[in-house]
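Final report, results section. Input specification for complex C-07:
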Amino acid sequence: MGEGKGGGLNQRLGSLVLFGGIHSPEPLPSPDTLVQVSRAFTPRIEAAAPTPVLLDLQGLSRAWPSPEALGRALLEAARERARSVNVALATTRTAAMVLARSREGLTVVPIGAEAQALAPLPLSLLDIAPEEADLLARFGLRTIGELAALPAHGLAARLGESGPRLVRLARGEDPRPLVPAPPAERFEITLDLEWPVEGLEPFAFLLQRVLDPLAEALRGRGRLAAALDLELLLVDGRVHERTLRPAAPSALPRTWRTLLLLDLEAHPPGEAIQRVRVCAEPTPARETQFSLLDPAQPSPEKLAETLARLHEFTAGGRGGAAALLDSHRPGAFAVRNFAPGPARLSPLEAAPFPRLALRAFRPPLPAEVRLEGGAPAFVLASGVRGAVLDRAGPWRASGDWWDEAYSREEWDVTLGSGLYRIFRDRLRGGWFVEGELD
Amino acid sequence: MRTATKAALEDLLRQRRLAPDALPLRGERRRGPLTTGHAELDARTGGGLPRGQLSEAFGPASSGRTGLALATLARVTGTGGLAAWVDPHDRLDPASAAASGIHLDRLLWLRGAHGARGVVDATRAVATLLGAGLFELLVLDLAGASSRELRLLPGTTWVRLQRALEAGEAALLLLASEHVARGPYGVSLAFAPRGARFEGAGSGRLLMSLNAEVRPGPLALRGAALELSTGNEPRTGNTEERERTESNGAREPRRLKPKLESPKPQVTMPTHASVCLATPLPLGGGKGWGT
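Structure output:
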């Protein structure tokens, strides 16, 4: 077991700054095994999941009289969950982590002996970048002790600011304080039904029983749900899974219930439901500071609910807020989620006078165009037909040769039935009516 | 005392901040009409499109219905309101909307799927949007819808929508090719094209504007003249300046902006998306049918 290597810290825990490292060289039963063991001792842990895990053990003198006793307790607790575990206690994070990864069993480093304990160990155990490790290997350095023995100013002259940092690391000094990892938040509720439930109406009541405590748990931690995973175990053994991600996060059970029911109406499970599992993806709640003068913003919950009711239109990116793309390709736009931000007010005087608008045909209508003197004289397409009474053009547009190239000649033509934009695709040939100007 | 102070503060805010078209205070109900921005038309319709009412703008192709609807939407979104464009035939051009001054992030665009029941679904979507009470102006684009599509609508559709409108402060504008419906206090704008204005000759010829006449109601004796500009300006540059193509983008850096907007063009701009790509070509070639 290697217990008490180095003679121990030889003093009571008291206010001693003490760190522990736990490492398992063998595969663990689950990724968070060591984290769970560590959390039984202290909430302040820093985990590079699944191993090693660093613990802040300061202030545990009431439970354990000495660092050795604490180390033994830690080792025994870890060995109940994993077969092969190393534990190292030291007054610096770096020493605790490196020793836990290199020495078997329990290692307790005396105060001030960190550099001595690390010296015989290989450089590869230090947490340094691969390029730095290669460089040090080219210098002929093999052990941590050899690096620690180098003068910091000499290394700084050769490596810059990383030189002194590497030396401090090799001497077991910490480059930064411990950053505790908060426990993973999991908001999940499962409800096993005594009798299978068929139909959405009775299911709505059950959903309320699941969503109310889930929303309560979210609010208790100052969180909203950005997405909700619904998993329904059906009587025929199938699992019906749905994931909802509305435009705005919410912790209102009524909103989520409506959204889930609307989604299930569109995607019914098909069989009776035996078990319900709802899992929320938490996100920090953001409070909005309202302005006295700005117009009231729409409630995000109501907006999400409205968009969910319009899923026939919004599904598949067909509905939302249009956004122009940074491209000169005619008609280049994207449809994004409709999530209006704070209003950007523009004075009414600045509103442009009514502009001529294009009413686009999607896709453009294939047309036959008769030319006279190189200019369109007659246009024939589905629903658009007539002699050209007046025209402007041609205007050539081309681009995107590196991707899907386009090249076209555009004309604005007046026919007896209206004003249209037509174009000739110069790459693929053929004329098209792009839209009506209205 | 507190009430008097609050009232005085609100009066002050209104004087300093709130013009008739400006923002309502939180909780303030203001049922003023939605202005179109066309002074004569607004004057003759009592201020614009009335809230809580079904209005319509109808006329043949290229009569300016869409341009006026977009101008009204620009005013709504420019004052912080939300608007929706229900588009069963997928005809809206976002570049035109942006050029009209619409804040695209405040315009919900619902695109139909070209199905036979697209118009029916669109009216259902409008009812849902009205029920939400989040939008100030909804435009239902039925221009180009066939009479068969309109016949599929249940007979109570417009009454139902009018009822839904009366419960809130939104206005609904129907764009159509001919008269469809309007609410009891809604406006019915009949558009008639009056031709397009071109300037220049040959390859430098430009479309400058579209002229139309708008009659506010079937009984109106006289219409208001409407001119929809393309934003083009008379040609001033030389030929070399106009020789720009995107394929060698080094000459012209890309710009992220509505392509119809060109506030101070160095050269004459065409009406459409290829403003800075446009290269007038010499006319030539023979007669015949293109394919």
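Chain B has eight helices and nine strands. Chain B has a mean pLDDT of 75. This concludes the modelling results for the funded period.
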